[in-house]
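Section 5: illustrative case.
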């Protein structure tokens, strides 16, 4: 019965942590001036890729592909880190605020670096600063998700 209770708490914690991370990410991206520029550039690049297909009379098949890619990226950034940190934390019976907030934040911030793999060629100084800034935003969003999970599922529970 105790295991069932922990599973319910885990599910509820994740159910609340994932939208909290998404809300924190949205808020940080909207409030940060540099991120507003990235969002505008990304939207313009998306329109630039979509409009020639529409003007040529082709069906807008690229839009569902772009939306599926965006959904997959958001899933990897917002769902995988809290679930993985919660699974490890529950397995090892960790109840620390630092574990859930820090590990979830670090994992979220490191995912774009891990997925990309090799460094990009070209002007590294400006790009590295922008990528570091984005990593800080992702760390804060992941930490928000981890802290909400800790508040709901791990705070005040007996580690035995």
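Designed sequence:
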């Amino acid at each position: 019965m105790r295991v069932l209770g922990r599973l319910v708490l885990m599910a509820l914690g994740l159910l609340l942590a994932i939208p909290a991370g998404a809300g924190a990410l949205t808020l940080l991206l909207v409030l940060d001036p540099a991120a507003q520029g990235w969002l505008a550039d990304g939207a313009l690049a998306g329109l630039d890729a979509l409009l020639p297909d529409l003007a040529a009379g082709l069906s807008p098949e690229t839009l569902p592909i772009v939306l599926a890619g965006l959904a997959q990226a958001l899933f990897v950034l917002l769902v995988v880190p809290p679930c993985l940190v919660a699974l490890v934390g529950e397995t090892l019976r960790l109840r620390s605020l630092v574990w859930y907030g820090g590990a979830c934040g670090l994992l979220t911030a490191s995912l774009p670096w891990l997925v990309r793999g090799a460094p990009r060629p070209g002007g590294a100084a400006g790009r590295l600063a922008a990528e570091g800034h984005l990593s800080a935003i992702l760390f804060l969003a992941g930490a928000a998700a981890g802290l909400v999970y800790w508040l709901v599922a791990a705070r005040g529970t007996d580690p035995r």
